[in-house]
Description:
By secondary structure, this protein is an alpha/beta fold. The chain has 2 domains: about 5-20 and about 285-375, Aspartate Aminotransferase, domain 1; about 35-280, Aspartate Aminotransferase, domain 2 (3-Layer(aba) Sandwich). Helices cover about 35% and strands about 15% of the residues. It is built from 11 helices and 13 strands. The chain has helices at about 5-10, 30-45, 50-70, 85-95, 110-115, 135-145, 165-175, 265-285, 285-305, 330-340, 365-375, and strands at about 20, 75-80, 100-105, 125-130, 150-155, 180-185, 200-205, 220, 310, 325, 345, 345-350, 350-355. It has a 7-stranded mixed β-sheet with strand order 2-8-7-6-5-3-4, sandwiched between helices. The chain has a 4-stranded antiparallel β-sheet with strand order 9-10-13-12, with helices on one face. Helix 2 (about 30-45) packs antiparallel against helix 8 (about 265-285) and helix 3 packs across helix 8 (about 265-285). The radius of gyration is 21 Å and the shape is globular. The mean pLDDT is about 95.
Amino acid sequence: MDTETLINVEFPQDEDLIYLNHAAVSPWPQRSCDAVCQFAIENTRFGAKNYPQWLQHEKSLRQQLQQLINAPSADDIALVKNTSEALSMVACGIDWRSGDNVVSTDQEFPSNRIAWQAQQREGVEFREVDIGSSDAEEALIKACDQHTRVLTISSVQFGSGIRLDLEKLGQFCRRSGILFCVDAIQSIGAHMLDVQAIEADFVMADAHKWMLGPEGIGLFYCRADKRDQLRLYEFGWHMLENTGDYDRKDWQIATSARRFECGSPNMLGGYALSASLSLILEVGMRTIEEKIRDNTALLIDALQRPGITLLTPPRPERRAGIVTFRVENADMAALHQALLQENVICAHRYGGIRFSPHFYTRPEKINNALEVVLLNI
């Protein structure tokens, strides 16, 4: 099936809907809806009769995620509730020393800030670096010193949409013996991310944005040689090496990333996410990235006019799927409401309006949204 036909089948959205909010919560593809319905019917009729098949499906989901981010093994993937949970696992799991510091940007979503600021109780300093300069990576590197334990950043900032050079930062961290943690929620599913190429120690992301999945499930990649370095603070049956052997009194923590999953998995969310990932892998991340870049280029070209200030860097290498702008002398909250009234689903972020089209978003939809903006200037 060609991509255009696939889009028509998988995204049967209302004709008047202009959905430009994938950086927040994405609509599901049709196949994800079908997977959830089928799972619900099966559960209603048979209960957990097919639980062994559910566990096999969970294994397949890990393999899909491994392929998506090019992890060395599916054993490196933990299925978590959300990005915040994974960030907390890292921030609370490190054996801190008083005087340690964590370096980050000044544009992070609260999840990638609060988890680290909470470590002040351990004597840890949290350093926020201004990345508004032309060389954001160099600014982050200069903020690190011999007491820096972690460099933690978002691959793409949720507000400005600035995309950082993860390979450069990862190489620096590896040379310097600094842990590299990447909140990739605004990347995975929008453009290619290779955890080995960027030399990341930890990568986390929710499913409900660019992966087109449900809320309540996400991935946590933990580099194999760093798993033992994180102290665990949640314990249960699912994180054991011999999970399922309920009569056994002695226990051992799983050697795989499953050690970070203390209890029962989100099977329903797993079925939905797996279906969404099957679409992403079928279309291919290269195609998806190219189509998203075309859509953001269309927005950026149209918005570069008097009276509008682009908050997203216009340079192609600095942007991903987010385009944020501000209209001079205009009430951005009121403009946001005006857009919503016209069925343009977007967000009010970073002091402006944030548009985030996906690969399936048609150019005519984007042009219609731009017309609403121009009418309200």
